């Protein structure tokens, strides 16, 4: 399928989503690649909104997608950016597919972040911009339920980017791994990923890298699933119910 055919196919889809035709067909030739990406991202998110996981699905059948990002700071609203992103599709705790990319931010990676992650500005010079990679990332995660440790941080950056560029957000279900961990082992608290990993004696070979942290969280999640089953929490509904009665 050539680029022109793809453009018209996606333009028709965009029309079906209610985008004015004058916006679609007034796009200059040299801007169509960027526009095609916008069409594709919007379509992916629209399709994802229609696919709601059955709350009575057994947990071993739920496609959990473990995600992590590395960022230049803590506030996307103040210009901090993603410079590494990773995700693992899992089924019953086993990895079925893996995604990992370095991302070239607009600004340099601060020295203290490089010291923490081992990733420097020169390491990402040939990496794609997030705008060129977001459609691939969304395609990868769209079928599953997202889970991660302090996942709110990751989603805040993803949603800030999506809103800034496309006036849309990720609206799919997600789980905070820390909350599940503390539900399983109350009254113990696990404010950091390191403490959760230590509880199960899970090693992380490349801590503070997106792919390394995701690989460690995959092993952590498999341990957690075993304990979830021990508590006879069989479905998504059971898990959400257990989380809902936790003290705040």
From TrEMBL:
Residues 63-230 form the Exonuclease domain. Keywords: Exonuclease, Hydrolase, Nuclease, Nucleotidyltransferase, Transferase. It comes from the Bacteria. GO terms for biological process: DNA replication proofreading. Gene3D superfamilies: Ribonuclease H-like superfamily/Ribonuclease H. InterPro entries: Ribonucl_H (IPR013520), RNaseH-like_sf (IPR012337), RNaseH_sf (IPR036397). This is DNA polymerase-3 subunit epsilon. The lineage of its organism: Bacteria, Bacillati, Bacillota, Bacilli, Bacillales.
